[in-house]
Specification:
This protein has five helices and no strands. It has 153 residues and is mainly alpha-helical. α1 runs antiparallel to α3. The protein is globular and about 50 Å long. The two termini are 23 Å apart.
Length: 153
């Protein structure tokens, strides 16, 4: 196909490898930033994290805080680096949906708190959708790769 016969529908910058790989890198960094920032906050203020878990009625608040730190910080960093993106993105998506129900149960609230928690709940659902899309698309070329993780093209 030459430029004269190329239509707008047949040309998409997303179809180029460099653009796709750059977009996937941006997606990984943007999605992982939420987990890294929140995980670091819980690690640097563990007692506050436990208090928050207690406030949200999370089961076993001290253990829940440890799990949250490991998942958010550990898996968030792995996702940013492009390590095991497909399975970890799915795990983070499930984690994000579960935390939406535990921490943002807006249906039990009223007034502005209900509205605020509803925004957070649906933000979690949206982030989970982005993570599922990332799992389907893969990490792209810009990532760490080793012998056990062949680069996917």
């Amino acid at each position: 196909m030459n430029r004269r016969t190329m239509t707008m529908a047949s040309y998409s910058p997303v179809r180029t490898s460099a653009w796709r790989d750059s977009a996937l890198l941006f997606a990984r960094l943007a999605l992982s930033s939420l987990f890294i920032v929140m995980g670091w906050g819980k690690l640097s203020d563990y007692s506050g994290a436990v208090a928050y878990m207690t406030q949200t009625s999370a089961p076993f608040p001290a253990l829940a805080a440890i799990v949250a730190i490991i998942v958010e910080l550990g898996l968030g960093l792995a996702l940013a680096l492009g390590v095991l993106v497909e399975p970890l993105a799915i795990v983070l998506a499930l984690y994000t949906i579960v935390t939406a129900f535990i921490g943002h149960h807006f249906w039990t609230m009223s007034g502005m708190l209900r509205y605020d928690m509803m925004i957070h709940f649906y933000k979690n659902i949206s982030v989970a959708g982005g993570l599922i899309a990332l799992a389907a698309a893969g990490p792209g070329r810009y990532r760490l790769a080793g012998p056990h993780m062949p680069a996917r093209t």
